[in-house]
Amino acid sequence: MNSLATSYLGLDLAHPIVPGASPLADDLDKVLLLEDAGASAIVMRSIFEEQIALEQLAAHRHLDTHADAEATGALYDTDVFALGLDTYLEQLRRIRSRTSLKVIASLNGVTRGGWVDYARRIQEAGADALEINLYAVVTDPARTCESVEREELAVVRDVASAVTLPLAVKLSPFYSALPHFVRGLHEAGARAAVLFNRVYQSDIDPLRLEAVRHLHLSTPDELLLRLRWLAILSPNANLQLAVSGGVHAPFDAVKAIMAGATVVQVVSTLLRNGPGQLRTLIEGLRRFLEEQEYPSLDVMRGNMNLARSPDPTAYERSDYMQLLQSWHGKFGA
Amino acid sequence: MTWQTLDGNEAVARVAHRASEVIAIYPITPSSGMGELSDEWSSKGKTNVWGDVPLVVEMQSEAGAAGALHGALAGGALATTFTASQGLLLMIPDMYKIAGELTPFVMHVAARTLATHALSIFGDHADVMACRQTGFALLGSASVQEAQDLAAIAHAATIESRIPFLHFFDGFRTSHEVAKIEVLTDDVLRGMLSSDAIAAHRARSLSPDHPTIRGTAHNPDTYFQAREAVNPFYDACPRLVRAAMDRFATLTGRRYGLFDYAGHPEADRVIVVMGSAAEAAHETVDWMVARGERVGLLKVRLYRPFDVAAFLESLPRTTGRIAVLDRTKEPGSVGDPLWLDVVAAFAEARRRGMRAGQPEPIVVAARYGLSSKEFTPAMVKAIFDDLAKSEPRSHYTVGIQDDVTHRSLPYDLDFDVEPADVVRAVFFGLGSDGTVGSNKNTIKIIGEDTALFAQGYFVYDSRKSGSTTVSHLRFGPRPIRSTYLVREASFVGCHHPQFLERYDVLELAGRGATLLLNAPWKPEDVWDHLPSEVQASILEKQIRLVVIDASAVAEEAGLGRTLGTVMQACFFALSGVLPNGEALQAIKRAIKKTYGKRGDVVVSRNFVAVDLAVQRMSYVPIPAVVTATRRRPPVLADLGRKPPSFVERVTAAMIAGKGDLLPVSAFPIDGTWPVGTAEWEKRSTALELPSWDPAICIQCNKCALICPHAAIRTQVFDPARLAGAPAGFLSMTYKAKDHAGQGYVVQVAPDDCTGCGLCVAFCPAKDKSNPRHKAIDMVDATPRKAIERERFQFVSALPATDRRTVHLDVKGSQLLEPLFEFSGACAGCGETPYVKLLSQLFGDRAIVANATGCSSIYGGNLPTTPWRTNAEGRGPAWANSLFEDNAEFGLGLRLAVDAQRATAERLLRQLGARVGDDLVSAILGAAQDDDVAIEAQRVRVAALREKLRSVEGADAAGLSRLADALVTKSVWIVGGDGWAYDIGFGGLDHVLSIGANVNILVLDTEVYSNTGGQQSKATPTGAAAKFAAAGKEVPKKDLGLLATTYGHVYVARVAMGAKDKQTIDAFREAESWHGPSLIIAYSHCIAHGYDLAHGADQQRLAVESGVWPLFRYDPRRSQRGEPPMVLDSTVTASKGRVSEYMRNEGRFRVVELQDPKRFERLVRSSELQAEQRLSFYQQLAGIKVPASGEVE
Predict the structure, then answer these.
(1) Across the interface, which of B461, B595, B1150 has its CB nearest the CB of A75?
(2) Predicted ipTM?
(3) Are B708 and B762 in the same domain?
């Protein structure tokens, strides 16, 4: 029996390592290479409703709204290119027809109607599951965390009742009471939570006084935050957990599973090292299980979580205080 | 039977694309649409009737297209092309060859005016008539339906007759009219095209399997006879055309003849005409016949070969008087061409005894409709009425008032024949607000969802920014023959309230019409906002006034400023053309159909707009009398001084839209117009204006540098002047050394600013504590306009900075007066900042040759033009010759300057002692290499003239006339990349090679901007453009690098938004180099598909990513023993930057949307090209070469 076999969102996977939401899925050749490297599922990049709307409107204006006697537009009308969800859905269908991968689409909506409509269309296009990407930066001081969470749960509920696809919800780490929120997700109909979204963060150019956006690949350091929350959530969560961010080596995957992850999503290491890196991760994980004589992942999953870890305080606040003091000591402050 | 609403170009292209295998084209208005559609269809895999996808190739010029076609035809392909005007002229040499070799071929021509005293993009038959001698058959269509049908007949007849066909229809009036027509199926087309004749054509092809030779050179012994060998084919052609027409009638039920007669069967007066005028004439003839008049109309379809017998047979035997109408002018001829043919036909008939027993008719000549001048039933009536006189006039014009040679025929302006059951509507909109798109949808809805016939015609003004469009729509129970603009409209849409201030919007409204006004006012307040003229018209014509705040509705629906849908919904609700509920559903269906591909958001927001529109419109209560005391503002701006008389008499009428009423005497006789008229026309289109904060300003003057419309002025002045400044006037003390201590102001011209925001984005001065606030910010224009207007008038009256005192760096350049201002270029244009800079640095001594394109349109399109003079009356002298010949034209100007200078110098030497040897040697020896020296030379020349007053003799008088030639002149050759890289490249290359002292400025937008975004050889890899819809595969031509290979050419590649100092350095170095100079200037453009406020940012990214490296190649440096090439941009070609640059622009982004993988590959290719180019440039920058030629 395959010791790595995993069931995630009701999908039977050969192993728990899944290429996460990224542009990798945009390129069918890369998808095929990932399949060759052993992938059994893939998460497509997140569709941003807001971006689609902006782009559609920009193109609409661009195509239609310059007219003088000689020229009524600088490009052919959209007959020659598709705007919006169509390209995405077409790629989804292409992956489904050309590979045996389970396809998990990813969606980031803005409007209630948008979430539901897009989810339906993704389901119709044949996705195996849907990852809802809750990514909101609240800047309005009048909004309370209760209202933010209430709205997010309502979105999950709306989508869950609109589609039959199994739903995962990808979260940011910035919740005051994450375990409670995750419980709410389950009640709203989600079957998994993905920890965590890597929020793009602006840098500052101090000379030009400009905010600068850079895309950074993840580093293994980022895993630590995720391990903590996997460990905290996994004993009580009624849903499955996936880790996303910071898994670069087989050992990272092992740690995430020990903290409670069902699935380990990887992106940066694939972008950096190529699709073949997936095989290294899978084989490394398989070897670890063999060498450490784990009969299955189920035995390993969660063995280092808050309930089962020999030192649960390591995940709690007291430990933070100690570390902080040790840093002070180290630099003699 | 399938009815669809199409414009003429599409109707023709649908036939041509399906009947061809090879299509070679070059874009030219108004035919471009046909080539573009063909390319679009082929790129989507649409096949011809034989199941193959036609190959479409865009060439470097029409001459190139014609050559490619000749080759394709010789190779046995079925080929076609689409062209007009100058493009057709460029094809003429190949047309002789194609016809001489008896080659089946059809070209479709949207007939357009030829450039003579002026360019015009509009329609007449001058271009077609220039092809009479080529041997092509000339077949003319009068309507959209006919254009489709005769296109098919042309394709059928050419294969069988072996005579090539030029099928033409009127540019704009037919090419751009949207009409409901019955479309041709593939089966009909297949039925028209003889496969035997096609096989015969193929069998004649050049092939090594059955070789022949063509293009031999004949001598006097054989050429003549061999030329006559074609005669049987021309003799047979009319019969074969008639056979094709008969076959067409069998297949479709629509019958055409070589000549078609309409009217009274026993008419005594007949009009003979070709083209769209035949429709207006037909309508009028029907009206007159119904009223008992014996009049008729002969429509000429097959003009060449002219079948005399068919012509005569088509005329009623009773015809006694004929007016032949020509839409062209052949100066010096006995008459215009169609008239000559008709007269000759009767002479021929007499000789051959074909009209025995019939009276000899009187045949008069009339000219009408040049450059799309309206041709109306009133003119037709006047022509018939004149024919009825005892001595009818001939060789007259109709449609204008000729008060010089008195050749025009008067007509009754109020005469009208349009039936009451035709709904007529006009809509005043902006080119940027979606009005035209929605109106096209309206025509589709009514044309395709109901039994009504529909017609739409759209009048654009040719400005690029803030251009007005007037849509003319008709709906009626019969096919619509009214090929002229709507009058007596029952519905007038005024889509922006400012139109009420500028135009007589109700001029076209009939009694009891509805006026739908978009305005932000409450219904009860609307009346008080109207000028008294508008109020009076409303009362007089009993107009029903409805108001809606469409801009607010569009904003609320999330459509920004696109308000076409809102106004369309109101039109349907008010006009009653369709029942209300049905109309709204139909609009939504049309929205779904038209915009479905653009995405669900676009569709759903338009749906919201439709629903909101109907709820929000309100009737306006109308009092019984005019209450306004305010009149419509004067047409000309109040600049605090009297306008020149020409501007008052002529320009003002044109601005007011009354140019049609100007008589011949109002105009210059030779196309020579006064400069500096743009300042008199204030269009006030900006919704936001830049607002200056002196507390933050660092006086860099970059805002003025980047402003496309010279609408931000940076000025130094004597602080004592502040005493006369308006209250609240902002200024500060100038800090730089050259004018330290003087007053300094950054001032916006509020009525000339377009609100593009480039200045604000380019401003580097940020408030340290709040970087969002800059030295200039965009603010709501409404409360600022009056304040800034007063301030700008004050700043305009300040004396211009003395050129001799200015340090010519970035900052200093913007203290110089711009002699190019307030053009009609697009908001945010990337070209005009360079043109303006040229005018500032060298304008007082510049002669500019300008290639046809955007720069000739914003530079020379009437009514008002931007080139102007300084206070001394000096400024750029500007001329546009053609598109293809600009470099040569500029060289000619240089040669003229040099010749005059040489003559002046010779005369000066000859007169030597009589004017004083010191003065002579000072003048001849003057270096004239900067403003100080040039001004000194002007002083010497003035002194010379003074001395010459007392010197007797012809030489002295001659020298006095020529003396200005002794002051240096700066010759500039300006144009876009379409000219420099493509159509004019041969000339440009030759001019560079000659070594003459000319300065060439290439405004490189990397695409044909003016004609609507077709790819050029400057289009970069990865960019989508027309004819490269999937994204251009091959790299951009490196024109600069090519030019450096001569060694004696100064070359610079610049991007003002990235490195303005380098731009200024390059302009100065180029101008000071006494040989040829070439500056290639990165010019962002609306065709790039992003908000041009970010134009300078994109320029910076282009340079920093290595896509657009900056360099200067100066032959003087090799003379100094240095490498001539200097690389001015330090680039670390980081890969992410190239894709960031590309993803920011719609032209690249659409490629990613179509095919992300292909896009990635093209990005990688662009990255590689950038690295290769940089590496190459870097190595060049390290190479010293021996100095070539002593050009200086």
Answers:
(1) B1150
(2) 0.79
(3) yes
